[in-house]
Amino acid sequence: MKLTRLLTFSCMLLSLMIPQVLLAQKPTGMESPSYYNIGGVLSNNESESHFATVIAHLNFDQQYVPRGTTYYDKTIRIDKNPIKTALNVCKHLISRRVYAVVVSHEPTGDLSPAAVSYTSGFYQIPVIGISSREAAFSDKNIHVSFLRTVPPYYHQADVWLEILSHFGYTKVIIIHSSDTDGRAVLGRFQTTSQTNYDDIDVRATVESIVEFEPKLDSFSSYLMDMKTAQSRVYLLYASQEDAYVIFRDAAIHNMTEYGHIWIVTEQALSANNTPIGIIGLKLNNAENETDHIKDAIYILASAIKEMTVNETITEAPKDCDDSGAIWESGKRLFGYLKTRNIRGETGQVAFDDNGDRMYAEYDVINVHENHSFVKVGSFHYDSEKRKMRLKINDSSITWPGNTGKKPEGIMIPTHLKVLTIEEKPFVYARKLLDDEIDCADDEVVCPHFNISNGNEQEYCCKGYCIDLLKALAQRINFTYDLALSPDGQFGHYQLKNHTTGIGTTVKKEWNGLIGELVAERADLIVAPLTINPERAEFIEFSKPFKYQGITILEKKPSRSSTLVSFLQPFSNTLWILVMVSVHVVALVLYLLDRFSPFGRFKMSSNDGTEEDALNLSSAIWFAWGVLLNSGIGEGTPRSFSARVLGMVWAGFAMIIVASYTANLAAFLVLERPKTKLTGINDARLRNTMENLTCATVKGSSVDMYFRRQVELSNMYRTMEANNYDTAEQAIQDVKDGKLMAFIWDSSRLEYEASKDCELVTAGELFGRSGYGIGLQKGSPWTDAVTLAILDFHESGFMESLDKEWIFHGNVQQCEQFEKTPNTLGLKNMAGVFILVGAGIVGGIGLIIIEVVYKKHQIKKQKKMEIARHAADKWRGTIEKRKTLRASMAMQRQYNVGLNSVSKSVSQNCEKTRYPIMAPLPRTPERAWPKDQEYIVNRKNNNTNKPPPRYMPTYATDVSHLIV
Fold first, then answer.
1. What CA–CA distance (Å, rounded) separates 481 from 385?
2. CB atoms within 10 A of CB 906
3. Pairing verdict, β 347-351 and 444-445
4. What's the CA gap between 5 and 326, in Å, rounded?
5. Angle CA(401)–CA(404)–CA(405) in degrees, nearest 5?
């Protein structure tokens, strides 16, 4: 001991006797300094003396100090007044060109180390803290050049997680003060839990967070809320004074007895009323300031040595009055300090990006009887694996209640809050009417609390999942309160930034049923909840109670037209050719019958009447009559050539009619429309066209499935804009023809297809999965629910639920409907009736036109007859007048002839015609018509009768002779 002191004194004396010439050797040009002043702001004389001794020893350590380099100590006493401390740093340290400052922690003040950090950091002079553990020093925006050889308080959260993993506790309640360090502990716990623990099954989750204001008077109100939680593991960060109040009230409420686990930090462990069984932490070498001083100096020397090899160090600032000077070498020196990783007096010394000590070693302390602290484990650095390890001796632990049996850490509740969602046929929900007091016997009350407006409405639920819930409650013995999903969704996540005490992290924030379970506002989800990786990361799933997949629902294709269904057997081209053929054949028949020598004369029929020859109208009537298989009563061809063409036309008509009849039966009776799509691999879905719209439900498991599948990304981008809020809306749009294809769970779509035979599922199942019961992570009911569901499968209970709620016996009905032919109805044959109606209307229209035209013809004919009658009457009058004048003229001439001597023509004629009357000379015998006949008759008769005196028959014949 004396030898050690003698060596120390000799080193100090040697350092004081160094020639002043060395002091005058300051670096010139681009060379690094040959001496370095190290400042110290320490709490007592012992620390100051040790500081000088360590630097004196350092100068002889060639591993850290190269030849030609010397370190000098410059120390001041820390003051509890931060202003005086800052002034002393400027006056006694910076003015002496210190290259770094080692600062201690004044026992009665917390602000002095911060004052040293502010002052030195302004000039980028590195500051090494050896006792400051507050979370504020981790903020590099404020403490730009501060690092420390002690870990901050919130790093104890790392040890907490290791302890929880060791004991298998996965659900905890965190109690912390509402200051910077308390929030930093919570943030560190949550971030480290998600970052370092990949296995969600062993990851500790926070069930509840209790934040209190420091300097408590009572903690009873918080404890009452904690009693309702499921977890019985409490992680406590509090000061010594606040921990005293918390332990006092916890003992009053019997929350320090068996079944409760308390894991606390160093400050809370120092309370004088810590209950038996508490587990706490204690930092190794936390109060050993001398060891931290030595580690800090050697870390600094290591950094300076490496920096001088790589670059030149400029002189440190010398005056606080020069506010514009920033020491760039000091900024780079701080970077070298953060990369140090050496084995020191306090263990493995290394720093993170914030300059905080890593690899800090802790003792795990257990409180036994008589308030004795017993070390039951350690958290230490494993040099072989180069990481921290936790080692605990479980057999030496005394748990609350002074027992050696480890508690379960949770309280298994028997009354659960169950959530569901309306999804037929699994859950039918109907609103309770105003005049109804309670639901029916097969229904369960399931209120819906609307989170958007805060209203609560009473509903009644029944269905597949409700019967399953009843069976589960009876089998594993629990009671429940059932409620509908607050926002009506199954749940999907969004990535959001969350700010904690140590930075900003990105978290998945869930809504819907999953969000309620993750936030631990529910215990069970009994609904058609698809099991997928995204959800399984945050909640527990039971074994599937129903296996299913994803399929496509579409409406069966309807026929092209109901009004012209009878025209479907032939194409439009064939109909046009038939129409043209009728009239071409009629025209050829007319021409053949017209030009044939045996067809253009009238022929006598048996009844004595004569039949007219075949005209063009009759030929068209004949052609249509043969084609439509109607009897032809008149207008048939009579020539041999026309009749040959008629027989050929009759054969053509027989073939056309027979073909039409056969195809009509195939189109209207036996034809069954097939589905439009072949499945998910249909090219029309992969490259969606404008006339084919497909969709699913937003944020559903199907939506997540399409997000995961890279090969379906093009299809998903198209359908994302068409997605619906609920499945009911999408199914209704499929029925109405607004949506071509709805992609959803096969169980629901098979139910819809069995209920409505107009709907059909297309293709095979894809994305196979199952429906499971959702539970909280680490729920004690997981195993019991899984075993019950497996038993239900074996006993046939699940199959009975399928028959009762999903199929309803309608599958066989639709299959039978598919196999039987269609019955023609008005929908199919409406066009024929419309055609007949059009014919009737057309006939009535034509007869009206004919009647009107006939009346017009009759009127015209009457006018013509009147005119003709008038003309005939006028002509008769004229003829009568002519006859009368002629008779009168003949009479006058006759009378004149009797009285005169001269002979008249009449007299001469009389002599000629009647020669017996007077022996006159012969005159020509053909002076008058028919005179010869008269003479012959007279000779034959040999009568001597004289001729009549007047022959009116010839009066008119001689009128032309009157002059």
1. 51
2. 15
3. unpaired
4. 41
5. 90
Calpha distance 943→931 (Å, rounded): 16
Contact between 110 and 181 under an 8 Å Cβ cutoff? The reply is no
Q: Residue 559 annotated as binding? A: no
Q: What percent of the chain has pLDDT over 70?
A: 79
* First-residue to last-residue Cα distance in the chain: 199
If one compares 741 and 612, the residue with the highest pLDDT of the two is: 741
Helix (H) or strand (E) holding 433: none
Q: How far is CA 814 from CA 67, 424, 742, in A?
A: 98, 19, 20
The one-character DSSP state at 634 is: S
Is 659 labelled a binding residue?
no
State how far the Cα of 479 lies from the Cα of 516, in Å rounded to an integer: 19
Contact call for residues 151 and 352 (beta carbons, < 8 A): no
Helix (H, G, I), strand (E, B) or coil at 776: coil
Q: Return the H-helix or E-strand segment holding 854.
A: helix 826-899
**With contact defined as beta carbons under 8 Å apart, do 360 and 283 qualify?**
yes
Collapsing DSSP to helix, strand or coil, 548 comes out as strand
Condensed to tens digits (0 to 9), the pLDDT of residues 84-128 reads 989 999 888 988 989 999 998 776 556 788 889 998 888 889 999
Distance CA 152, CA 138 (A): 8
Task: Give the number of other Cβ atoms within 10 Å of residue 752's Cβ.
Answer: 20
Angle between helices 616-627 and 572-595 (to 10 degrees): 140
Helix (H) or strand (E) holding 741: strand 741-745
**Cα–Cα distance, 949 to 947 (Å, whole number):** 6
Placement of tokens 């390890």 in the chain: 389
Could you report the per-residue pLDDT of 295-330, keeping only the tens digit for each?
999 999 999 999 988 888 888 888 887 666 678 888
**CA dihedral of residues 155, 156, 157, 160 (deg, nearest 10):** 150
pLDDT of residue 563: 63
Buried b (16+ CB within 10 A) or exposed e, 923-958: eeeeebeebeeebeebeeeeeeeeeeeeeeeeeeeb
- Say how far apart CA 567 and CA 829 lie, in whole Å: 10
Contact 801, 464 (CB under 8 A): yes
Flag whether 530 is marked binding: yes
C-alpha of 916 from chain center: 138
Q: Is 359 helix (H, G, I), strand (E, B) or coil?
A: coil
Q: CA 197, CA 821: separation in Å to the nearest integer? A: 64
Which long-range contacts (C-beta less than 8 Å, at least 24 apart) are formed by 625-630?
626/650, 626/653, 627/578, 627/582, 627/653, 627/656, 627/657, 628/653, 629/653, 629/657
Rounded distance, CA 537 to CA 92, Å?
58
Taking a C-beta distance cutoff of 8 angstroms, is the pair 346, 149 a contact? Answer: yes
Q: Collect all residues with Cβ–Cβ distance below 8 Å to 274 and sequence separation of at least 6.
A: 243, 247, 264, 268, 280, 367, 371
Report the C-alpha gap between 742 and 724 in whole angstroms.
10
pLDDT tens digits for 644-684?
888 888 888 888 888 888 877 776 655 555 556 778 888 77
- DSSP H or E stretch at residue 472: helix 464-476
732-759: average pLDDT: 86
Give the residue-averaged pLDDT of 176-202: 82
Closest C-alpha among 371, 373, 484, 349 to residue 419: 484
Phi, psi of 176 (to 5 degrees): -145, 155
Which residue is associated with the tokens 């939506």?
703
> Can you say how many angstroms the Cα of residue 197 is from the centroid of all Cα atoms in its chain?
32
Of 790, 782, 785, nearest to 472 (Cα)?
785
CA atoms within 13 A on the CB side of 333: 31
Mean pLDDT of the chain: 80
Q: Rounded CA gap, 811 and 757, in Å?
A: 9
Determine which of 269-278, 349-358, 451-460, 537-546 has the lowest per-residue pLDDT on average: 451-460
Quote the CA–CA distance of 833 and 143 in Å, as a whole number. Answer: 94
- Rounded CA-CA distance 392/243 in Å is 24
Neighbours of 598 (CB within 10 A): 12
